[in-house]
Amino acid sequence: MMDSGVRSGSDVVRHLCARRRGRVCRKAFLWGLGALGEEGPGHVIDLLIEETQAAAWQLGARKVEEVRSLAIRHAGALQF
């Protein structure tokens, strides 16, 4: 489970690639609430869905299952 750092759809895709099953997006919804009032959280979820789809499509994935199967590091990547 990831409890921080989810501010965009690309963050959601990154966590899916890392095979995380849960994500907590508190700050984004609070910012939406502060900016747009009652309609803010709904607007934020719409943005996250659109950004997640766009990021997945850029990686060549059309479904969530395909995103989960992507390798986040290639064999020649630096190891720390």
Task: Describe the secondary-structure layout.
Blueprint: H1 9-17, H2 26-36, H3 40-58, H4 64-68
Helix pairs in contact: 1-3, 2-3
Tell me the domain tally: 1
User: What is the string of helix and strand elements?
Assistant: HHHH
Mean pLDDT: 83
Task: Tell me the fraction of residues in β-strands, as a range.
Answer: under 5%
Features:
mainly alpha; 80 residues; single chain; elongated
Please tell me about this protein's structure.
The structure is a single chain. This protein has 80 residues and is an all-alpha fold. It has one domain (9-68). The protein has four helices and no strands.
Put the structure in a nutshell.
The protein is built from 4 helices and no strands. With 80 residues, the chain is mainly alpha-helical.
